Amino acid sequence: MLLLYGMAAGAVLVTGWARGAQPDDIPPTWPIVLYAAAAGAVLLFLALQGLAGVAGLERRVARRFLGPSTREVLEGRISELAASRAGIVAAVDAERRRIERDLHDGVQQRLVALAMMLGRTRRNADPAAHADLLRQAHEESQEVLSDLREVAWRIYPSALDTLGLDDALAAVAERSAVPVRIRSDLVLPLPARVETAVYFVVCEAVTNAAKHSGASAITVDLAESPDHGSVRVSVRDDGHGGADPAGPGLAGLARRIAALDGSFAVASPTGGPTTVTTEVPCG
């Protein structure tokens, strides 16, 4: 209002002086003009400050009465946690089905083949055939052990306990059919749940890239936030892209990270590259 009154008074004075009128017989001398200008500037400053204060007050009032209440915020958080719990239950069920499938289609079938080879060896009297069957049985037993280690690794990576995160990830890189470069700025050790999440994200992303992307190189970047409050993981390959974030492997990772209040994203445009990014809080 001060601004409007000041502008109106100024307009009246300027208009009167322009027409030759002199209000209250005051001549329009330069000192008076300067004083009026200074007074107008002060009024303008005060008016602008008043407007800023009113705007801030309106924002606070709107936030207080129109924004979500504390109860609504808590209810929203409860809904998020419930959805996350449901996702975890679904992920656990899916993982159980996968383990059962791996045991049935992999380990169990190899054990059946091994038992048949040993039975043939016991019934065969030919020394040469006997030796050959024993050799095959030994090779099959090694394959069974490899499959069992793979299944056990997917349940829990014991390498984290025996080697630590750095060496465990280095082992993942060594096993990969595609060259993997790991760049890490992490200050170890991290909380166990965070190290486990990081390990599974890197393993799944590297495995998917090696199997499906046609990539020739994979880069893994691990870094902590400046305040050490979270860990950021990025796995990038130079393959043809087209990865499906809704696939069982990536979807399971997303649910695992969501359970830790983290973020998970997959960018995989057609033609590549594919980048899997996740951030996990350490608190």
Automatic annotation (TrEMBL):
The chain crosses the membrane at residues 30-57. Keywords: ATP-binding, Kinase, Membrane, Nucleotide-binding, Phosphoprotein, Transferase, Transmembrane, Transmembrane helix, Two-component regulatory system. Residues 195-281 form the Histidine kinase/HSP90-like ATPase domain. Residues 95-160 form the Signal transduction histidine kinase subgroup 3 dimerisation and phosphoacceptor domain. One of its GO terms (cellular component) is membrane. It is an enzyme of class 2 (transferase). InterPro entries: HATPase_C_sf (IPR036890), HATPase_dom (IPR003594), Sensor_HK_TwoCompSys (IPR050482), Sig_transdc_His_kin_sub3_dim/P (IPR011712). GO terms for molecular function: ATP binding; phosphorelay sensor kinase activity; protein dimerization activity. Pfam families: HATPase_c, HisKA_3. It catalyses: ATP + protein L-histidine = ADP + protein N-phospho-L-histidine. The keyword Kinase applies. Its EC number is 2.7.13.3. This is histidine kinase. The lineage of its organism: Bacteria, Bacillati, Actinomycetota, Actinomycetes, Propionibacteriales.
